[in-house]
Amino acid sequence: MQASRPNPATLRAEARLLTIAGVMLLGVGFPLTVILVALALGPSGPPPLLPLAIGAPPIMLGYLACRFASDRLVKARTLDGAR
Question: Would 53 be classed as within a structural domain?
Fold first, then answer.
């Protein structure tokens, strides 16, 4: 079986898709967390761990998506320099 090497254009396209997904997740996660923290600080608000339980997963997934996009761009730049 022959393994195909990724080309820089494919890596850049994957990075673009991951960046869009990451920014969308961060755009949902941060405001949601801030709103839930504001509600939790109120006198009869939700439990204090609710912002962490609901807001952390989209923030972490958004960060990881952007991190993987950055890695893809570095790999694409390395492949461009090798040619």
Answer: yes
pLDDT band at 3 (very low <50, low <70, confident <90, very high): low
Residue range 28-34: mean pLDDT, rounded:
96
Burial per residue of 68-77, b for 16 or more beta-carbon CB atoms within 10 angstroms, e otherwise = bbeebbebbe
- For residue 27, pLDDT over 70 is answered with yes
Percent of the chain that is helix, strand, coil (3-state, to 5):
80, 0, 20
Kindly state whether residue 8 falls inside one of the protein's structural domains: no
**pTM to 2 decimals?**
0.85
Task: Note down the domain range covering 58.
Answer: 22-82
- The verdict on residue 36 lying in a domain is yes
- Name the domain count of the chain: 1
Assess contact for 53 and 36: CB atoms under 8 A: no
